Amino acid sequence: MSSDDRQLAAREALVGVAQEPGVAKPDPILVADGVERQFGGLKAVDVDHFELQRGSITALIGPNGAGKTTFFNLLTGFDSPDNGEWTFNGRSLAGMPAYKVARTGMVRTFQLTKALSKMTVLQNMLLGAPQQKGENFFAGLIAGTWRSQEKANTARAEELLAHFKLDAKSDDFAGSLSGGQRKLLEMARALMVEPDLVMLDEPMAGVNPALKQSLLDHIRELRESGMTVLFVEHDMDMVRDVSDWVVVMAQGQIVAEGPPLEVMQQQAVIDAYLGEHHDVSLDSGSPA
Amino acid sequence: MDFNLIFSQAITQGLGVQAVIFALAAIGLNVHFGYTGLLNFGQAAFLAVAAYGLGVTVATLGLSLWVGVFVGIAAAVLLALLLGIPTLRLRADYLAIVTIATAEIVRLIVRSVTLRDVFGGSDGINRFADEFYALNPFAAGLTLGPLNFSRNDLFVVVVGWVLVLVSCLIVFLAMRSPWGRVLKGIREDEDAVRSLGKNVYSYKLQSLVLGGVLGCLGGFVFAISSQSVQPDNYGTDLTFFAWAALILGGAARVFGPVLGSILFWFLLVFINVALTEAVRVGYITFIDGTQVGQIQFWILGLSLMLLMIYRPQGILGDKRELAFDVK
Known about the structure:
Shape of chain A: globular
Strand content of chain A: 15-25%
Oligomer: heterodimer
Number of helices of chain A: 11
Structural class of chain B: mainly alpha
Number of strands of chain A: 10
Strand content of chain B: under 5%
Shape of chain B: globular
CATH topology of the largest domain in chain A: Rossmann fold
Number of domains of chain B: 1
CATH architecture of chain B: Orthogonal Bundle
CATH architecture of the largest domain in chain A: 3-Layer(aba) Sandwich
Number of strands of chain B: 4
Number of helices of chain B: 15
CATH class of the largest domain in chain A: Alpha Beta
Radius of gyration of chain A: 20 Å
Order of helices and strands of chain B: HHHHHHEHEEHHHHEHHHH
Strand order of the largest sheet of chain B: 1-4
Largest sheet of chain B: 2 strands, antiparallel
CATH topology of chain B: ABC transporter involved in vitamin B12 uptake, BtuC
Order of helices and strands of chain A: HEEEHEEHEHHHHEHEHEEHH
Structural class of chain A: alpha/beta
């Protein structure tokens, strides 16, 4: 199937779905219920119900401070909610530490790229490989226990690096990469974990326009190879271009959902971005 | 000036027991800081619990020296767990505060009057290593060029350097393995490592245990070489001398702490003996012999500062590994 077919298929699967917050999806990979996180007096996240369609690219948008990144952190175990339940592939993840969440096949990247700068690009990649026996201290001392696995992982890492056009950099320190290359490396490294769901926190932040196009292609390819993608993004062109479904958050809640073109027209979305009374002229409002 | 004396003493100390003790302590710190990024300012505590574990087992309980070694290592592991379990979830700087406090607590406990019967108070514990010296295969001491060791010193020094080499081998094997790669990843950014499915907390604890056990070997050497353990030998000076050796040699390099420790003791003794000689002969008149002890640390401190400014990665370090340290 070509990229367009995949997009068509992914969008078709969502055709009958109502455009309302927290709507049920035909084949959800992730289902969250009543997830709440309070920071002092501020309820940063207050999501009643959320479902993520398997095999789709879903964008999570919303104004600054809407709680998108916090919601990401909660789902991936980097922060713990005050309340809430969520399941991934039918398995409950609430209260599970971040490293275990990653092992279930749900891998995230970070808004501020976390390249491990004083390690080479290849070492960064190899760190992502799951179930390496040599990561046990005693087994690690005896190279025979992990050499063959390391070889296979290196081959896979080099393949991924070639795909992301980082193969020439494989022996360079990750700290010497440009901002955009670090984003690519972080994405490639996440793929080393062999995830089912990739969660990208602002993949386009600080990336130049030329590289943006290739990043978009890479995100589409994730879907083509059967993964589900959930990403936070502010770049609306990108959201329109690549996503099959858009979820809008404002003040910690999900306020709208829908296909990318239609969701932008919804009153709740316009309100969220521009303020509820943006179309009311100042003198016709009630006097202060 | 007697240059023979100056070099002979400096080289003998640079390869002597002190250098061995600090090399082992610094090898442990290298695992903590150089590879994992853990700021441990209480390395002295690991040496202290090992030395006291040995001393108490032999002198107080009357058991064999080898049981004492086992007790010492067990005490170091226990200390690492005790330190790590509550603090490793916190940020790195908290670990620094907790470790320095713990080391002082350990020192104050063993020198306390209440526990004098067990630990010997401020006098410590003495003469418990005869069993070790009974095994001495050397018939006489060694005088080879500038080197000069007595029969017993020679035995301790040889065993000590063997321990240093074995420790270096363990560090080398561990750090080239995928296990070591996880540690280095944690040093760079622990959240990234966590997001890739590694149990960061467990690895930090393992690193603390490994570095503590390697460092505690220095405590055994210290205790056995002087046939005594005294609480005030395990103060903060010991920790910071070990840090100086590590930084001087180069962190995150297998032989960095070893080279650093050798150079540190060579320089310290060289400055001391050279100044003493210069005062004795009359080249330096504005200080007297008793002030040399302080001045040697001034000069050493100044050299370390210059090193930090002009070669911050230490002698064996890789400049590139420092160049990107702009967070």
